[in-house]
Design goal:
This protein is mainly β and about 120 residues long. Helices cover about 0% and strands about 55% of the residues. The strands form two sheets. Strands 2, 4, 5, 6, 9, 10 and 11 form a seven-stranded mixed β-sheet that branches. A four-stranded antiparallel β-sheet has the order 1-3-8-7, with no helix packed on it. The chain starts with a strand and ends with a strand. The model has no long low-confidence stretch (mean pLDDT about 95).
Length: about 120
């Protein structure tokens, strides 16, 4: 069973940086992508970035080159490096794994870590 634990969130001033970490355990043989998503109050959950075993990455349009997703060789640890943070980046950031074959219960999700950017 896949389990995800996010860490690294916190309070940071605009223009600052944070590194989020997702620690992954369990069987990930059927996982297609590892990713970060975020959700702010009153807004829909949105894609931040994903990475796959080939290190191909996909980023949300809002990132504008400020964020970078990376991981170790096995993607047991996945990072989200966030630079030049803006108040609109304030959200709960979730680590999520999407299987090649969809599960009735959906993708795997962590508990989330709060990122708050002050102006």
């Amino acid at each position: 069973q896949v389990q995800l634990v996010e860490s690294g969130g916190g309070l940071v001033q605009a223009g600052g940086s944070l590194r989020l970490t997702c620690n992954v355990s369990g069987n990930t043989r059927n996982i297609r992508t590892w990713g970060w998503y975020r959700q702010a109050p009153g807004k829909l959950r949105e894609l931040v970035a994903t990475i796959d075993r080939s290190s191909d990455t996909v980023y949300g349009d809002f990132v504008k080159g400020r964020f970078t997703i990376s991981g170790d060789s096995a993607l047991a640890t996945v990072y989200l490096h966030m630079n030049d943070l803006k108040p609109e980046d304030t959200a709960v950031y979730y680590c999520s794994l999407r299987p090649w074959i969809r599960r009735p219960s959906g993708d795997f999700w962590g508990q989330g870590t709060q990122v708050t950017v002050s102006s």
